[in-house]
Write a structure and sequence with these properties.
4-alpha-hydroxytetrahydrobiopterin dehydratase activity, Pterin_deHydtase, alpha+beta, about 110 residues, lyase, EC 4.2.1.96, Gyrase A, domain 2, PCD_sf, binds the ligand C[C@H](O)[C@H](O)[C@H]1CNC2=NC(N)=NC(=O)C2=N1
């Protein structure tokens, strides 16, 4: 199977299918630091990233924002002093899509770089 970081986000059709259990079980091992959470009734991928100060956390928010615009797939970003909570889900299908797993993997790459 291709690495999630090689996947380019695809536009989603409103009401299209969410990721199957098999897909989730195939993708999730590549993003071990992320949790699958219920965000206001919608399944989402969530991870909290920690930084030395507010400035570094803000810089990371901007990096993820750039990535989101490049792929035209957008996260929820919660910025606090030294902490950024990132949530990926696909609003159009009210659930998880391969796009979300790919963006989570790319968010990890940004954090590690
Ligand atoms: C038209 C365009 O594809 C949509 O508005 C995109 C933009 N970014 C998006 N981001 C996310 N996370 N979910 C979406 O459904 C979505 N839709």
């Amino acid at each position: 199977m291709k690495y999630l970081t090689e996947h380019k986000c695809v536009p989603c059709e409103k009401g299209g299918p969410v990721a199957t259990i098999d897909e989730i079980n195939a993708y999730k091992p590549q993003i071990p630091e992320w949790d699958i959470v219920d965000n206001k009734g919608i399944q989402s991928l969530m991870r909290v990233f920690h930084f030395k100060n507010f400035k570094q956390a803000l810089a990371f928010v901007n990096q993820v924002g750039e990535l989101a615009e490049t792929e035209y797939h957008h996260p929820t970003l919660i910025l606090d002093w030294g902490r950024v909570e990132v949530l990926w889900t696909t609003h159009k299908i009210k659930g998880l899509h391969k796009n979300d797993f790919s963006m989570a993997a790319k968010t990890d790459t940004l954090f590690e770089s």
